[in-house]
Structures are given as C-alpha cells and as structure tokens.
Amino acid sequence: MKTISLLAAAVSLAIAGAAVAGPKAVLPTDLPPYAPDRPLPVPAIQKTTLSNGLEVWIVPRSGLPRVDAVLAVRGAGLAADDAQHPGFATTLAGLLNEGTAKHDSKSIAELAQGLGGGVGAGATNDGVMVSANALASHTGEMLALLGEVARTPTFPDNEVKLAQANALQSLKASEAQPGFKAERALAEAVYGDHPYAHTQPTEASIMSVTPQLLRDAYAQRFRPDRALLVVTGPVNRDDVMRAVNAAFGDWKSTGNALADTPPAPRTTAPKYVLVQRDGSVQSAIRLGRPGIAATDADYVPLQLAGTVLGGGFSSRLMQNLREDKGYTYGARGGSSALREGGRISASADVRNEVTGASLKEFMAEFKRMGDEPVPAQELEDTKRYVAGGYLLSNQMQAAVAGTLASNWLVGLPAEFLGEYVPKIRAVDAAQVQAMSRKYFDPKDQSIVVVGDPKAVAEQLKPYGNFEVRAK
Q1: Which 3 state secondary structure label does DSSP give 103?
Q2: Interatomic CA distance for residues 206 and 193, integer angstroms
C-alpha cells in the first residue's frame, strides 16, 4: 500500500488550514479538487511474548537502512510517584543512560554514536519509554545497548548530583513563568488528589532524590511483564528475535510491583483560583474539567470536537481571541486522554485589561459548541487537518514506533494506528455537538488565572468566587 506523499500532505494541510480560517482566507476559484485521502499503511506487526512476559512487536519497513526501537514500561511513569516525590519519574528516566553495570555515561554516548544512532529515555504520566536507533547493520548491537541501559542502570552518585543541579535550575526557570503555575493549579483543580494532579517537581522532591531511592524505585517499576518492545525498520524477524532474546530473554522482575494507577475522576465541582503574581502585566488563563481515558468510546469524536474548539491556528478560540479580538497571541483548547482518565482544557495569556472579556469569549465558544452543529465545510476542513497532521507525523518509522508504544501505554491496541484516521472521517456533526454538550458545558469548567489581583480581581467576579493563592 502506498504511503501518502509528504509534499502532497503538506499542501493539503496548508489549504485546509487556510479554508478553516473562514471568510478572511480567500482561495483561488480554479483550484483542483482535493484528491481522495490515502490511508496510513497498517503495518504487518509480528507479535511475540517472551517467557518473562515481555511483549515484542516487530514492524518490518523498507526504506532507509536504519532501525528504531522503543521499550515502553507501563506504570513506571509520573503517576507512580508518591506525594513526596512529584516529578521523580522524569529524573529516573533521564538517568537510565548515565551509567550502567558495564559503561559510564560517556562510554554509552560513544557506543551509540558508533552505531550510527543514539539512546535515551523519557517519562510520561503512564510510563517510561526508552528509545534507541542505529544503522540497520548494527541492529543486534543497538538492541544489546538498549537492553543494557534499560536493565542495568546504576545511578552513579556524580550523575545524580548533576541531574539534581540541572533539575533545580530548570525548576527555577519554570517557576518564573505564569503558565507553569497556571498548569499546576489547573491540574489540582481537575484531578484533585489523583496522581495525575501532581506531576511537576518541587525543590523538595528534587533534593530528596538519592541513588538508593532511584535503585529501589527502578526495581519496582521496571518489569518485563509490564513492558513492550517495538522494533521497526528493514529487519528480519528471526534475526531480531535472536538479538531480543540475547538482550532481554533473561530479564526477571525484582521487588514488589507497584499498584496500578486508580481511575481518575470523571466529574468534579468547578474551582475558581486566582494565583497571585503582583506586578504582572498579563493574566495566564486556564479552564478545564475532568475528561476521559483514551479507551473510552467518546475518545475519537471528542478529539475532533476539541480540534474545532481550539486545536489549531484556524480553531474557533484562536480565530476569536487572537484574530478577531486581538486579546492574545494564542488561544488553545481541547481534550487530552491518558490511561486512567483525561481532561478538557483551554488556555490563553492575555493583557490585564481584557482578562474578564477573554473569559466571556471562552465561555461563549464553549457554549456555541454545544448549542449549534458545526457547519459542514468547517467540519470537513477540520477532519482534513486532523487526518493530514496524523499522517505526516507517522511518516517516519521512529514516529511509528513511538506512536505504537504510546498507544499501548494508554491502553490502545496496535490496530488503532491505522484506525484513527478512518474513525475521525466517520464522525458527524451530531456527534461533535453531543460531545460538546457533554464535556464543554461552561458551568462545569474550573477557572485558574495567574495574575495581579489588583488588576484583574474585579473582572473575575462574574465568573465565580475566586480563591486567592500566593502560589
């Protein structure tokens, strides 16, 4: 099956984006019609489960002589951090390739470079993903290095101290940004005491990290029976499985497994929070409420509804608050979904004097989504935008491996990779309106504003009784 042309997709996106923009975008009358959508080729995934429980998905692809691999470990991410260590999983993941039983940080980097690629790791709410790539001729060596990094990290004292120093500097820079504070307050308003609410690090949590704490957490979180390995590229299954068995076949779980993340709330009473930032000339506005898990039946139509509302430059929020009103440089909104829940959110940073007026427009757009069906042309243009972006983002095999692993972490099957665009295309205006009524009702939205109370408090009174917080 042919893949979509990058150039054709880019042109399609540009035209669709211009069309969604509305009356301000005037297109030539003699443009040819859109070509039919070309589906994303569904890869023939060769699935195997090792005796230790590790799932292995091999995705043969022709093209560049490069192999990409992603090891996803479910339950090892930020939602596994306790209340005293928010953000801990980010440090844990970042230190995996900074020293192993065989090599120090510098040697690991040199080995990866010598294979024509790299190795690294990162944490999400629902897990940790360790990625590696190399020239196809070094597939076995790359998988061996990936296995070494994922299975035998040592968390050397000097690397832990360096990671702490870097994290403290990053936190200091983040704390100076109103958006960081706004996101933290909104997560707490939406998720309450759920682990999804506390994923940002604090100075105390960073300073409490020790090599032994990392080793103990690693033993609990990294288990083959909670892991998936995706390997994609111009590979032969038998050759890959020999390398996988050599690198991961004797991997055994140690320590007691952590409990699964509990379900996140589906509803909550809205909260109204004004985070004090004296002297600020702007207000960071955030709105939100609990959403749904990625496996919920509402997931796909809600994603499309969220894109209409605030998912791109041509979305309603952007066109209203930026293009029409000039209140902000950018306004966004939509739905995000995780394994055990999700959230609806919207955001903009606006001038002090239009804080209340901006909230009025947010509420009006939320309400309009539920009151009126999306016009046919707007819906069609949004579908093309979503489908084109998805197809473009999954052109490269590294992206395919990452998407498969990310989907698996949130509970979606391998087949969803090829099902997403057809499902988006099948959503109709009635479904979008139903999703909007269900999740975008203005009365259900918590509101967080980070700004100067002297400048904005009076403007906020029509929207709720705001609690003023120092941070």
Answers
A1: coil
A2: 20
